[in-house]
Structures are given as structure tokens and as C-alpha cells.
Amino acid sequence: MIRVGVNGYGTIGKRVADAVAAQPDMELVGVTKASPDYGVEAASRRGYDLYAAVEDRVDEFAAAGVGLAGALGDLLDAVDVIVDCAPSGVGERNAPIYEAHDTRAVFQGGEDADVAEASFNARGRFEAARGADSVRVVSCNTTALSRLLAPLDETYGVEKARVTLVRRGGDPNETDRGPINDIVPDPATVPSHHGPDVNEILPDVTVDTAALRAPVTGMHTHSVNVTVETAPDPGAVRDLLADESRIFLVPEAAGIDGAGALKEYAADAGRPRGDLWENCVWEESISVTGRDLYLFQNVHQEADVVPENVDAIRAMASDVDAAESVARTNESLGVGLESRLGDGELARAELPADD
Ligand SMILES: NC(=O)c1ccc[n+]([C@@H]2O[C@H](COP(=O)([O-])OP(=O)(O)OC[C@H]3O[C@@H](n4cnc5c(N)ncnc54)[C@H](OP(=O)(O)O)[C@@H]3O)[C@@H](O)[C@H]2O)c1
């Protein structure tokens, strides 16, 4: 059993905690919070032991009547791996604390690459984390681009990828983020940090990225153009991407027309919190002109890095290989959406009529 703690029980931390708790080869020892707000109730309802992320805030929890199993140092001494899910930039400040307790650490994509020994994506760079003391799971956008570009490069050879990322302004619970009525180039210069970050995972792929922020909270949208070395057949590209367990081909027949319907589809499928762990590639958007491939994909920023965190833990603290780890993570979480509408399995004529 790999004993795991989660430091920071926010948007990413609460999802990583649930995913770790679902693994047969992992034990979730506990989670931390910086303040005793509503998030502590979610941890309590799930039976997770709660620790104070910041030692000198322990009294705030006592004053709020919230019981603690200890503070961060106690959690670090009880685990094999700590997953840092603190706000962007705080992970870097936490790194020396993890080192002082001799505890292996997984960081998130809000930190710079040099916070850890290796950047991680299960599809493109599993072995880089093998036995490492610190690993950074790349950001939601970089995770999605790595999952997409890795199979395209292996099969066709990527000459150059150009991606425009329309990023959600904030997560649904972030009342202070924006814009609320605009679309903002962010940054206005090219490349955004995503292209160089993809090269932390796929160093040989040439990719330029441009990014904007839009007044939505549900998902990011990527407009992707990849010039490949061998002219691809659109049907073969569809088959290639359909074979990737962490890519969901959104079938035209499903009538899903945007992020809102996608999130509803996930919730109807019984996904916790309506999470979409997979890249969502719009099947009918896969188009080819000569050696230029075009497509749109949506990325659920709160969810796609979650299975990658689980695999990063295994890569660091076990000898399980990439294929086995991904299979275990997918199986335990239920990663791998396949619509029953895509192949005619649920053709309209087969739906039961009211009469
Ligand atoms: N949200 C996304 O879309 C997304 C996607 C991919 C990657 N990431 C990355 O994941 C990381 C976490 O982001 P998030 O969106 O989950 O942030 P978040 O929702 O703001 O959650 C951060 C959590 O960290 C806790 N915290 C505050 N100070 C801390 C400290 N000093 N030590 C430990 N924990 C502390 C907070 O506690 P309280 O709740 O008590 O304040 C909160 O539970 C960032 O690096 C981010 O860039 C985020």
C-alpha cells in the first residue's frame, strides 16, 4: 500500500483525494485545509482525516469546532507521498517542508517546472517520474495537449502544431475571477506558457500556443491545427484518437453542442461532480487539408489532471509500469467515456416509444 496525503483540499485536492481513496493499492491517510470553511465538511462526510495546512492556524479550527488529526508535519511523517494541491506558487514554498520531512512530493501545474525533478504526463512521460523524489503534474491545458499530440506524433510525425486556447475565466466557485464580459488575450504575446510546457513532456514536438480568457467557468476550448509529415485520413485520425483511453470522441449524433451539454452528459453518466477526466474531442471537427489536421477539443480544467496525479504517485513509489498504472487508474475511476450514440448502438429507431 502506498500511503498518500493531500496538502490543500480545494478544486484539485478534493478530486485527487477521492481518486486516491478509490485505488486498491493506495491508502489516503488524510487531507489538509488552510481554513475551517465548508470544504472541511466534504472531507468529514467522506471520513477523511483532516490536518491543518498551516501550523499556526490550528487554533482557528478549534475555534470553529472542527476536529483535527494534526498539522501538516504530522501528515508528512505518516505518508510515502504528499500531493501538493495548494494554490499556484504556494507549492514552491511548501517544497522545503517536504524535503525536511523526507517525503516524496507531487506538485501541480501552477508551479514552475523547476519545482520538481520531472514534469509528468502518463501518456507522454511516465518513466521520467520513476523513483523521483518530486514530480510536477503539468497543467490541465498541457495535460490535454500532451495526450493529443503524443499519438499524432507517433503515428504521423508532428511537423508543427499551432493551438489557440480559449481558457475559462475561473472555476465555478471562484467569484473573484473574470472577465465577465470580454475576451482577453492572456498573454497577448505568443507563445503562451503552454507550448514550452508541452515540451517538458514532448521535447521533440514543435508547438506554438496562443491563449485567451473568456467569461465561462465550465471548460477550456482548444482550436488545434497540426501539420503532420504524412497526410492523414480523417477516419484514421478518428480511430487513432478513439483508441486513446483518456480521449472522448464526442459523436455528432449525440447532439452535444458545447461545454454545458458536455457537463450535463457527464453528470447523467454518473460522473462524480460531473467530472470529465478525458479530453473531449469534437468528432465532426476532425478535418484534413493536405498535411494539415484541424480539430476542436474541450478540457475540463477541474478534472483532467486527476488520473495523472494517481499515475504520478505510482510512478514514484512503485514498480508498476505505465500501461498497468493507467489501466488500474482508469478501471478504479471509470475513465474512458464511450457514447452509445456514436456507432448506431442506440439509433433513434431503437429507443423505446412511449406507446
Ligand atoms: N483549478 C484548476 O482549474 C486547476 C487545473 C489544473 C491544475 N491546477 C493547479 O492545481 C493547484 C491547486 O489549484 P486549485 O484550483 O485546486 O486551488 P484552490 O481551489 O484554491 O485550492 C487550494 C487549496 O489549498 C489550500 N491552501 C491554502 N494555503 C495553503 C498552504 N499554505 N499549504 C497547503 N494548502 C494551502 C486551500 O485551503 P482553504 O480552502 O482552506 O483556503 C485550498 O484547500 C494549483 O497549482 C493550480 O494551478 C488547477
Structural class: alpha/beta
> What is the strand content?
15-25%
Give the termini separation. Answer: 54 Å
User: Which shape, going by the Cα principal axes?
Assistant: globular
CATH fold type of the largest domain: Rossmann fold
Record field, number of beta strands: 16
Name the poorly predicted regions.
none
| Fraction of helical residues | 25-40%
* Total number of distinct structural domains: 2
State the fourth-level CATH superfamily of the largest domain.
NAD(P)-binding Rossmann-like Domain
Bound ligands, named by name, code or SMILES: NADP nicotinamide-adenine-dinucleotide phosphate
Q: What would you say this structure looks like, in words?
A:
This protein has helices spanning 11-21, 39-45, 58-63, 72-78, 90-100, 140-156, 194-201, 234-242, 259-268, 306-317, 322-333, and strands at residues 2-7, 26-33, 50-52, 70-71, 81-84, 104-107, 118-120, 134-137, 158-168, 184-185, 207-214, 220-228, 247-250, 279-282, 287-289, 292-299. The protein is of the alpha/beta class and 355 residues long. The chain folds into 2 domains: 2-138 and 305-333, NAD(P)-binding Rossmann-like Domain (Rossmann fold); 140-299, Dihydrodipicolinate Reductase, domain 2. The N and C termini lie far apart (54 Å). The chain is built from 11 helices and 16 strands. Helix 6 crosses helix 7 (194-201). The model has no long low-confidence stretch (mean pLDDT 95). The strands form 2 sheets. The chain has an 8-stranded parallel sheet, sandwiched between helices. Strands 9, 10, 11, 12, 13, 14, 15 and 16 form an 8-stranded mixed sheet that branches. The structure holds NADP nicotinamide-adenine-dinucleotide phosphate (NAP). NADP nicotinamide-adenine-dinucleotide phosphate is lined by residues 7-13, 32-35, 37, 39, 53-54, 85-88, 90-91, 94, 108-111, 139-140, 171, 301-302, 305. It catalyses: D-glyceraldehyde 3-phosphate + phosphate + NAD(+) = (2R)-3-phospho-glyceroyl phosphate + NADH + H(+); D-glyceraldehyde 3-phosphate + phosphate + NADP(+) = (2R)-3-phospho-glyceroyl phosphate + NADPH + H(+). Its main location: cytoplasm. Keywords: Cytoplasm, Glycolysis, NAD, NADP, Oxidoreductase. Belongs to the glyceraldehyde-3-phosphate dehydrogenase family. Homotetramer.
